[in-house]
Design a protein that fits this description.
Elements lengths: L2 H15 L1 H16 L4 H22 L13 H13 L5 E5 L3 E5 L1 H7 L6 E2 H4 L3 H13 L3 E7 L5 E14 L3 E10 L1 H36 L6 H33 L8 E3 H18 L3 E5 L6 E3 L2 H18 L5 E7 L8 E6 L21 H6 L6 H11 L3 E7 L3 E7 L1
Parallel strand pairs: 8-10
Antiparallel strand pairs: 1-2, 1-6, 2-3, 4-5, 5-6, 7-9, 10-11, 11-13, 12-13
Length: 415
């Protein structure tokens, strides 16, 4: 629209806006004519007043904002688009019709790493489903979406959506917006709810049946038996304590699953942390006649992690080494690495009976026990190593298990 054509709509709008002043001034002019003033002078006065009002209004009218469209300033448009997309908390890629990535927002860079401009989408997105969906949208212009799951570095579920953008650059290149909406937490909540009910009902059934049996006995045959009261109440207290530990571990596991996809960013020095864990476990080690030896370097060894969760990891590993490896009378804890690019490692070694080879791959499963009776006699819930695995997954770390029958077991945590 040129300036000449644009003037009349603007003038019409301003007349509408100033109509009450114009009408009032016209009424005043009529009154002045009726009072005897020369009509020509009154009309000239009113015309000058109206022209002044309208010229002021037109000059004050803000210029219209041009719609973003194809022009030689495509780079400026992309810069503007980046600013807008960086405000979003979901990963977004802007893809051209030739399947090249023109830009990504900060959330996408954090989730998928830096993607150089004009990189082919297929070089960075390995999912055939996403690539087929993008190609279909490019060919048909229709909006599409699918559910996409990723396993590494941690499990994540996204609703991936692609849609044509109402913007084109560089002489008409059509753009497509590829967005990732993270629904991992919703999926984890659903799974957590079903797993919690299944696991809790399975594991709580035995102690609850035991409590019920003792209560019925105390109400019936042993109603007046003082010795039976003392014995049964002690067993009932033990079973109730076991249920309490089990519920605490299940809740801890559920909390970890909810945030397993969020890596912690706090810096933690492992040397004093391991010293704190060993000090807290010293009474247990003395009870089972085990000596804990700690070997750490003189310099600090830092990792990115959550201090409380790392304490829980090493408490579980060292406590298990003391309980299940007590025949060896010794547990060695060694911290190494962290300099010249070498990975940080914490090794926990016991000299007990070891773990049979066929059981090693499954020891981090929930409620999996190598020896059910031994585990329950040592007050284990069967969830300790599952908790360790989930914490290490969140810390982008791994646990390596090496065991030899009759010689002991070595658990290595590698960051």
């Amino acid at each position: 629209m040129n300036e000449e054509n644009a003037f009349w709509p603007v003038l019409t709008a301003r007349v509408s806006a100033e109509k009450w002043i114009l009408i009032l001034s016209a009424l005043i002019a009529i009154v002045l004519i009726a009072s005897g003033m020369h009509p020509g002078i009154v009309f000239l006065f009113w015309l000058v007043l109206a022209a002044a009002l309208l010229s002021r209004s037109v000059a004050a009218a803000p210029p219209s904002v041009p719609v973003m469209q194809a022009s030689a300033a495509g780079g400026d448009q992309l810069d503007t688009l980046v600013i807008v997309l960086n405000a979003l908390d979901m990963p977004v890629l802007v893809v051209a019709a030739d399947e090249t990535v023109l830009l990504q927002n900060l959330a996408a860079e954090k989730a998928f790493g830096t993607i150089p401009q004009n990189t082919y989408l297929a070089a960075r997105v390995r999912s055939p489903g996403i690539l087929d969906m993008v190609r279909e949208t490019i060919s048909t212009g229709k909006i599409n979406q699918i559910e996409h799951s990723e396993r590494l570095p941690s499990e994540a579920v996204y609703i991936v959506r692609v849609a044509p953008a109402e913007i084109s650059i560089d002489g008409g290149r059509q753009l497509y917006i590829l967005s990732y909406r993270d629904i991992s937490q919703a999926r984890r909540i659903d799974r957590m709810r079903s797993d919690f009910v299944a696991n809790a009902s399975h594991e709580l059934r035995t102690p609850l049946a035991s409590l019920r049996g003792f209560i019925e006995t105390l109400q019936g045959p042993a109603r007046n038996d003082v010795k039976a009261h003392e014995k049964f109440l002690g067993i009932m207290h033990e079973q109730a304590t076991r249920m309490s530990r089990l519920v605490d571990d299940l809740l801890s596991l559920s909390r970890l699953e909810l945030k397993s996809h969020i890596a912690p960013d706090e810096k933690v020095d492992l040397a004093p942390l391991l010293g704190h864990v060993i000090d807290s476990l010293s009474p247990l080690a003395q009870d089972v006649d085990v000596t804990i030896a700690l070997d750490v370097p003189d310099a600090p060894v830092f990792v990115h992690g959550d201090r409380d969760e790392l304490i829980e990891v090493f408490e579980n590993l060292i406590e298990n080494a003391c309980k299940y490896g007590q025949e060896g009378k010794k547990v060695e804890v060694t911290l190494s690495g962290g300099d010249e690019g070498s990975p940080v490692e914490v090794a926990v070694r016991d000299f007990g009976p070891g773990i049979p080879t066929e059981h090693v791959p499954r020891i981090t499963e929930r409620f999996y026990r190598v020896n059910v009776e031994a585990s329950r006699s040592k007050k284990g819930t069967g969830l300790g190593l599952a908790i360790v695995k989930h914490i290490l997954t969140r810390h982008r770390a791994r646990m390596i298990v090496q065991s030899e029958l009759g010689k002991g077991t070595l658990f290595t945590v590698r960051f």
